[in-house]
Write a structure and sequence with these properties.
Blueprint: E1 5-8, H1 14-20, H2 30-50, E2 54-59, E3 62-72, E4 77-84, H3 95-107, E5 121-124, H4 137-143
Parallel strand pairs: 4-5
Antiparallel strand pairs: 1-2, 2-3, 3-4
Helix pairs in contact: 1-2
């Protein structure tokens, strides 16, 4: 498996975070330019409040994947919002696995959010769909050892 460079989000690479979700053909579209600026502002605020909230994967200087998450301090849990490898030619090359492994390793270390204790668990909510040729997020996370739970409308596990 090819080794990709994984970096935490910093002020220096926020632009990469904002660009990875935009299709290359839409980069100059006014709505996407506005969205990128709004995401940049949001990302700067998250850095200020949390210190970190995402990791990017790079192949040389090209951003090829991301994992975005948030701490839930009262539960000592990390909630994964998104794991994304946008380009089809990058799928199934280990990018998402390396991003998740990096996050798991990082969350085993004490965190200020958790009173200098490590996270107790990582959790996510996935949807079952996937593009042709792509693993669904649900399949990816179950293959990585996550357990499936059915939830009631109130959010409780059945």
């Amino acid at each position: 498996m090819e080794k990709f460079r994984i970096e935490d989000i910093t002020k220096e690479n926020i632009k990469d975070l904002c660009l990875i979700c935009i299709p290359p053909e839409k980069i100059d579209h006014p709505a996407f330019i506005t969205g990128m600026e709004e995401k940049r502002k949001w990302a700067m605020e998250m850095l200020r409040r949390r210190g970190t909230f995402a990791k990017l994967s790079y192949r040389e200087s090209t951003t090829v994947g991301l994992i975005q998450y948030k701490p839930v301090p009262q539960e000592r849990v990390i909630y994964i919002y998104c794991i994304f490898v946008p380009e089809k030619d990058q799928w199934q090359k280990g990018i998402a696995t390396q991003l998740l492994s990096s996050l798991i390793a990082d969350m085993k270390r004490p965190k200020l959010w958790f009173d200098n204790k490590p996270a107790l668990a990582l959790t996510t909510r996935t949807f079952p769909g996937a593009k042709s040729g792509q693993f669904s997020a649900r399949l990816f996370f179950t293959r990585e050892g996550f357990k499936l739970h059915n939830f009631t409308k109130s959010g409780k596990i059945r």
